[in-house]
Amino acid sequence: MWSENSVQSGPRFCETAPVTTSALYRDCARLFMVGFPGTRIDADFAALMDDGIYGAILFKRNVGTAQETAALCREVKTRAGRPFILSVDQEGGRVARLRGAPFTTLPSMRELGQRGDVQHLERVGRLLAHELRAVGFDWDFAPVLDVDTNPANPVIGDRSPSREAHEVARLGVALARGLEAGGVASCGKHFPGHGDTTTDSHLTLPRLTHDLERLRQVELVPFRAFAQARLASVMTAHVMFDALDKDVPATMSERVLARVLREELGFDGVLVSDDLEMKAIADHYTVEEAAVRGTLAGVDLFLVCHHADVQRRAIEAVVKAVESGRIPRERIQEAHRRLEVLSARFAHPAEDRLATLGSAEHQELAKGLDSAFVGKDPTEVMVAAR
């Protein structure tokens, strides 16, 4: 059994000996985080674990009571026998996989953000981390850094803490710092900004026509602050940004990811894609093309959340692209380096922390935050989307 002090590095390319096909497959599989059906490990998921995937994301279909969820997380981590990251969308408000006692039902981020209190938002982050760690999660895909500028937006809206860019930056960074202080990786989403779209990328491919100056004054402001705070990860948006790249969505664009996020904003954490099975991608590109072009653009880790055959096709496409020389091996090494940094800090072994739910520390973190909030979760809108 591994411990927090024995985090293993991912596979590295050998500088002198040729890389075997199986070793290369593991190198490329490490760039993927997958979803799986049900509340137990199935054969497809087990095989992908054995082949070296980085981790897994859990959805409503995977979680039950706190005890059942903790048992599944322990089963997965024990089965992996290595640092294996488990992630979840636990934003509060409409988007929360863990619901009902002993978990805290949080208000929407809009409601929490209206107080404008960074200490309050940091406590929310610490509370989220406490509850997630209790059942075995390492990574929370929160906070939303999209600026809530469009009342007609069908997917962001009250998931954002504010309609003002600098407030989103201030409050989003505070929540992320709370999460990471509590031992859970944060993820700012959805770069470079999904807040002003009128369509939902789960269902179609949105396009924004704002000029570059507008993007720098609004959409990019929270992500610049997130990068400067050196927080763990950022998630891409499956959105077209005409001022940056008229040809492909941000997830597949080197101009957006390498030039803007990495070079202009200075972000050097893990860059994770939104789910490649969302219709914004799946209706316009093959998963093979999306995975290869995304890797070249600078994505370090791909979410493929629903179907094992799609997950396999995506991994195999990256393998073939490395073999052909289309993807430089240095690009895979670069992704591994960032993933290893995240694992070293946030990959926790299977552990029993359920008793901390309801403890005095938990109650103090949750004081005054509980809500009766209900709302439709746009990330569970369809089977093949997140």
Automatic annotation (TrEMBL):
Annotated source species: Myxococcus stipitatus (strain DSM 14675 / JCM 12634 / Mx s8)
GO biological process entries: carbohydrate metabolic process; peptidoglycan turnover
UniProt xrefs under InterPro entries: GH, Glyco_hydro_3_N, Glyco_hydro_3_N_sf, NagZ_Beta-hexosaminidase
Keywords, alphabetical: Glycosidase, Hydrolase
Molecular function per GO: hydrolase activity, hydrolyzing O-glycosyl compounds
Protein name: Beta-galactosidase
Pfam family, one: Glyco_hydro_3
Family: Belongs to the glycosyl hydrolase 3 family.
Record domain Glycoside hydrolase family 3 N-terminal: where: 33-339
